[in-house]
Every structure is written in structure tokens, then in C-alpha cells.
């Protein structure tokens, strides 16, 4: 979205008279991108759907607090990332299992997931991703599968481009080792 | 390397003297035009290395799909959720109102019971009340978001151990560093300078 268009949209979102219409535009513009971002963290479609809706509700409720210090999309990605990670934390707490155990189970469940059309290699990729620290996994997915620029990822994750490049490089190396090992 | 060595000829005595006198000249030579296209060659090498990072082992798609028409119906679902939420939302301020009432009632009871309570009674009213409030807060699933919490609790009132699940012992910190040490570059504030 162009910067000027984004500024106009933010103004409309903060104005109670135009908020609803502007929010419709916002949802339409970002629903797919945010969905895929969330889906790659929580893996399951139903969970991604829940988290995505919560994310948009949070955005709607907190738009007045958006100070415009970062770009609108990075603010929304940040909310989506936090919501997804919090969701997983709550899920593991409710099931009384560790975060690692939850990640393993999530990948195992993919095999029976009708909305996962992956073959052996995709499943193995998810297994490899489950072994990575959250940050490396996020950077890898955002860069490789969501095709985001380092500068964009840097705004979302509030990490320097240099550190992101290192994280990405480490992630790729670990995934390569995992996929090539047998 | 061999090529460079071949180009180094033995020095004559007079040449050595000449060299020692003049530091800005030396007898090492570089191939003609070596520095002219150094930058191009370097960039070529960087590009080559980048291309050499063969990512063909990664599948093009990661296999996730969505139900048909999912994105079309999403706008509707979100706006319904927001409308529903607007009617159901529980304002924290109303709770606050009850807190004053509850505190007043508790104070009154405390005075009454405090006067009549058998001193041998082991369960104090104060314990009971705070236990109940704790139980309520534990079970009521207020589900406050970080934003909502930040609105009602000032930063001064929060201790780090209120928000972390495990007490932040040095063991926890060491464990954290141990798990995340791979990202040590993140600690290097001037990392980009070396890029």
C-alpha cells in the first residue's frame, strides 16, 4: 500500500464515522498475507482462522493507540505474530505439555490434515522447522515462503537486518542438514 | 599464488638500497589493470557466492491449503465478531466499581467478625476472602489481553516475577542463553557495519 494511501486509511480508521468502511478495506487488503503468516506458525487451518480473527479484532480495538511510529502493516504483522505465539503458549498450557511437545504433535497432526497437501518432503520440512528456535523459524518463513524483504521483517520483528540475515542463514543450514540426513 | 611468485624477480643490491630509501615504492608488481577492475571482480564473486547458495533442496510450496472460498467469507465473519464483541464486551471499569463495593463489604465484615471471632479459629476471614478472590481471578478466565492489562496496571506495580512463569533464577537465564546462543550476533550492536 502506498504511504499516502496508508496515512489516509489510518485517519479514516481513527474516525468513528468512517471506521467501519476503512476497516473493511484493511481486512480485504491484508487478510491473505496475515493468514499465511499466522498459518505458518500455528500450522492448522482452524487455529489460523481463530488467530486471524482475533488479530483483526485486536487491530480494530487498538487502532486509536496506533502511533504511526512504524508502518501499519508491520504493526499488524507484529500483532499477528504475538497472537500466534500466545495462542501456542496457551494451547500447550491447557494440554499440560511443553512447548516442544506441542510442536511435535502439531507436525504429527499435519499428516491427517485435509488442508495440508504436502508430500514427504513438505512434512520433513515442517519437522525441520519445528526444531528451530521461534525467531529463526519466523525469519525463514517470512523470507522464503512469504517473500518479504529483510527491511520489512526487521520492522516486524524489531531486529536489525544483520541479525536477521544471520538467523536466516542459520535456519537454511539447519534445514538443509535435516533434510539431507537420513 | 604461483603466478605471483613467478613475477617476483631476485633483487639487485642497488635496488634494495633504493627501496629502503623510498617507502612508497616497492618491487611487488600486480597484473596490469588489476586495481582497475577489482571492484567488478569482487562484486562478481559475491554474486556467484549468493547464487551458489543452492536452495533446491527446499520445496517450492510448503503444502498448506485453505478451504474453498475461505477468504471470501472472512470479511463478514470478522465484522460479525466485532459487532458481537461490542455488545458483549465486559468493561473493566464495572469490575472496578464492584471492587470498591467488595472492599467496603469486606471491611464491614472484618470489623464484625473481628470483634466476635473466636481467637482459636485457625482460618482467618482475611485468608478466606483473598483465597476466594484469587480463585475467582484464576477461574473466571477474564482473558485480559496484554493491551488491556497495560491499561489498568501501571508499570511500577509490575515486578518481573509477576509476568514470568518461572522465577527468574540465574539458572533460567543461563538456560535461555544456552538455547539461544546461536543468535549471539544479535548482541553485536554494530553488526551491520561489518556487512
Q: What this model shows, in words?
A:
- The complex is a heterodimer of chains A (182) and B (195).
- With 182 residues, chain A is mainly alpha-helical.
- Helices cover 77% and strands 0% of the residues of chain A.
- Chain A starts with a helix and ends with a helix.
- Chain A folds into two domains: 1-99, Rna Polymerase Sigma Factor, Chain: A (Orthogonal Bundle); 118-182, Arc Repressor Mutant, subunit A (Orthogonal Bundle), CATH 1.10.10.10.
- Chain B contains nine helices and no strands.
- Chain B has helices at residues 2-7, 13-21, 38-52, 70-88, 92-116, 125-139, 146-152, 160-163, 170-180.
- The two termini of chain B are 27 Å apart.
- Chain A binds chain B through residues 20, 23-24, 27-28, 31-32, 35-36, 39-40, 43, 45, 49, 52-53, 56-58, 60-62, 65, 82, 115-119, 121-123, 125-126, 133, 135-136, 144-145, 159-163, 165-167, 170, 172, 175-176, 179-180, and chain B through 53, 55, 57-59, 61-67, 70-71, 74-75, 77-79, 81-82, 85, 145-147, 179-180, 182-183, 185-186, 188, 191-192, 194-195.
Q: Tell me the overall shape of chain A.
A: globular
Round the Cα radius of gyration of chain B to an integer and report it: 37 Å
- The proportion of strand residues of chain B reads under 5%
Major sheet attributes of chain B: none
Write the layout of secondary structure elements.
The complex is a heterodimer of chains A (182) and B (195).
Chain A: H1 3-14, H2 19-42, H3 45-62, H4 72-95, H5 99-110, H6 120-130, H7 134-145, H8 150-157, H9 161-180
Helix pairs in contact in A: 1-2, 2-3, 2-4, 3-4, 4-8, 5-6, 6-9, 7-9
Chain B: H1 2-7, H2 13-21, H3 38-52, H4 70-88, H5 92-116, H6 125-139, H7 146-152, H8 160-163, H9 170-180
Amino acid at each position: 500500500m502506498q504511504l499516502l494511501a496508508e496515512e489516509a486509511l489510518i485517519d479514516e480508521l481513527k474516525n468513528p464515522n468512517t471506521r467501519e468502511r476503512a476497516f473493511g478495506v484493511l481486512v480485504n487488503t491484508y487478510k491473505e498475507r496475515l493468514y499465511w503468516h499466522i498459518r505458518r506458525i500455528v500450522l492448522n487451518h482452524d487455529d489460523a482462522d481463530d488467530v486471524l480473527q482475533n488479530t483483526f479484532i485486536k487491530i480494530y480495538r487498538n487502532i486509536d493507540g496506533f502511533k504511526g511510529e512504524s508502518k501499519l502493516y508491520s504493526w499488524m504483522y507484529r500483532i499477528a505474530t504475538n497472537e500466534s505465539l500466545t495462542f501456542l503458549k496457551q494451547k500447550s498450557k491447557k494440554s499440560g505439555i511443553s512447548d516442544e511437545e506441542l510442536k511435535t504433535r502439531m507436525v504429527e497432526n499435519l499428516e491427517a490434515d485435509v488442508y495440508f497437501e504436502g508430500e514427504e518432503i513438505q512434512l520433513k520440512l515442517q519437522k525441520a522447522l519445528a526444531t528451530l528456535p521461534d525467531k529463526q523459524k519466523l525469519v525463514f518463513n517470512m523470507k522464503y515462503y512469504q517473500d518479504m524483504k529483510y527491511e520489512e521483517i526487521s520492522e516486524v520483528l524489531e531486529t536489525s537486518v544483520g541479525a536477521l540475515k544471520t538467523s536466516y542463514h542459520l535456519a537454511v543450514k539447519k534445514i538443509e542438514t535435516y533434510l539431507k540426513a537420513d | 599464488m604461483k603466478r605471483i611468485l613467478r613475477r617476483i624477480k631476485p633483487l639487485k643490491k642497488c635496488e634494495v638500497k633504493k627501496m629502503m630509501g623510498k617507502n612508497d615504492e616497492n618491487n611487488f608488481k600486480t597484473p596490469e589493470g588489476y586495481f582497475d577492475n577489482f571492484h567488478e571482480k569482487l562484486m562478481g564473486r559475491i554474486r556467484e557466492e549468493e547464487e551458489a547458495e543452492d536452495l533446491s533442496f527446499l520445496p517450492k510450496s510448503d503444502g498448506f491449503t485453505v478451504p474453498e472460498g475461505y477468504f471470501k467469507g472472512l470479511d463478514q465473519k470478522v465484522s460479525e465478531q466485532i459487532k458481537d464483541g461490542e455488545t458483549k464486551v465486559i468493561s473493566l471499569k464495572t469490575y472496578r466499581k464492584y471492587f470498591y463495593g467488595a472492599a467496603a463489604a469486606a471491611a464491614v465484615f472484618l470489623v464484625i467478625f473481628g470483634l466476635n471471632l473466636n481467637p482459636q479459629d485457625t482460618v482467618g476471614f482475611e485468608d478466606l476472602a483473598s483465597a476466594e478472590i484469587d480463585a475467582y481471578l484464576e477461574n473466571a478466565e477474564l482473558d485480559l489481553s496484554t493491551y488491556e492489562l497495560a491499561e489498568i496496571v501501571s508499570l511500577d506495580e509490575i515486578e518481573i516475577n509477576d509476568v514470568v512463569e518461572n522465577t527468574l533464577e540465574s539458572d533460567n537465564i543461563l538456560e535461555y542463553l544456552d538455547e539461544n546462543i546461536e543468535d549471539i550476533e544479535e548482541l553485536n550492536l554494530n553488526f551491520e557495519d561489518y556487512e
